[in-house]
Each structure stands twice: as structure tokens, then as C-alpha cells.
């Protein structure tokens, strides 16, 4: 069990400071992620028959969205680590890492959904234990199963704190939403930088 302590308000405050050092980069990255993510999914659902059909264009956009998500996650980590970053880092994820990022996202989602199907608390608990899975894949280049095991290990003893962190960043996102698009363009990078900072606090334990 880890003895690391952290302050959610301090994480958000430092993230705000770091965001202001290069706001245009993070606003652009956020816009890019939102645009690609809005292009559609790989499956089209007929609301009347509930039948699904494969959408090739949507599938490509979904994979592209996942790739950008992986690259941006690594950018947030490197930036909070003090490394210099640029738009070139949007292409920094290699094929093997990307495959494991996809699997880590799918398996984490399945586990969390199963948890929520067993009422709310198990879902929140699993979310807290898997909080670092994608970060470990892109940063440490762990396989998806290693990342799940490692996240479960290093998150022990901090479940309530991580759940509180989730609610805090949700609150920031809601504030950004009510400030319309401009607010989201600031809120999303801030909470993402805070999450990367939280990951760095715990990642040296693995």
C-alpha cells in the first residue's frame, strides 16, 4: 500500500499554471481531439431495429481518435515531467504501443461497465483501481495486461482519494461546459494535466 499523499486543489492549481505556459498548444490539441472524436464510430445503430452495420469511415475515425488520445496522453505526461513538447509528438506512438492502448481502453471499459452493472460503488472502485492503465501503456510501454495489474497494484489504499479526484475533474468539466466552448477548451487540458501529474506521483512505484 502506498503512503503517497496529494492535494486535489494543488494538482489543479499547478495544472492551471502549466497550462498558462503554453495555452495555444493545449487549446489546439483539445480542438483536434474533439473534432476527430466527433466524426463518428465504427458501428451504425438502427434505432428502430437495433441492428448494427459496419461503418468503414467511422471505424477509421475511431481508430484515429484513439491514436490521438494515446499521443496526447503521452504529451501531457511529458509536459508535466518538464520535457519540451511540440506538435510532432502527436505522431510519437508506435504501432505496438497503440495496439496495447486499444486493448487497455477496451478491457478497462468492460471491467468498469461490469462494475457499474453491479450497482454504482463497484464501478467507482474499479475506475479508481484502473486510473493509470492507459498512462502506463504509453509512458512505460507496458502491455495492456501488465498495465492493468500495475495500476491495480499502485492504486491500492487510495481509492477514496481517486474517486474524489474524478468528481473534482468532473466538476471542472461541468464548469467549462457552462462557460460554453471556450470554457471546455481550458477545462479539458487542465484536468488532463492534473491527471498526468497524479500519474507521475505514483508511477515510480511500479
Structure report:
By secondary structure, the chain is mainly alpha-helical. It has nine helices and two strands; from the N terminus they run ααββααααααα. It has a two-stranded antiparallel sheet. β1 (43-45) and β2 (52-54) form a beta hairpin. α4 (95-117) packs antiparallel against α6 (133-140). The protein is globular, with a radius of gyration of 17 Å.
Using brief descriptors, characterize the structure shown.
2 strands, mainly alpha, 3% strand, 206 residues, two-stranded antiparallel ribbon, single chain, 9 helices
Task: Explain briefly what this protein structure is.
With 206 residues, the chain is mainly α. The protein is built from nine helices and two strands.
With strands numbered from the N-terminus, the spatial order across the biggest sheet is: 1-2
**Low-pLDDT windows of residues:** none
Distance between the termini: 12 Å
Radius of gyration: 17 Å
Instruction: Please work out how many helical segments DSSP would assign.
Output: 9
Mean pLDDT: 90
In total, how many beta strands?
Answer: 2
Percentage of β-strand residues: under 5%
Task: Show the helix and strand layout.
Blueprint: H1 8-21, H2 23-37, E1 43-45, E2 52-54, H3 56-80, H4 95-117, H5 120-129, H6 133-140, H7 144-154, H8 159-178, H9 180-203
Antiparallel strand pairs: 1-2
Helix pairs in contact: 1-9, 2-3, 2-9, 3-6, 3-9, 4-5, 4-6, 4-7, 5-8, 6-7, 8-9
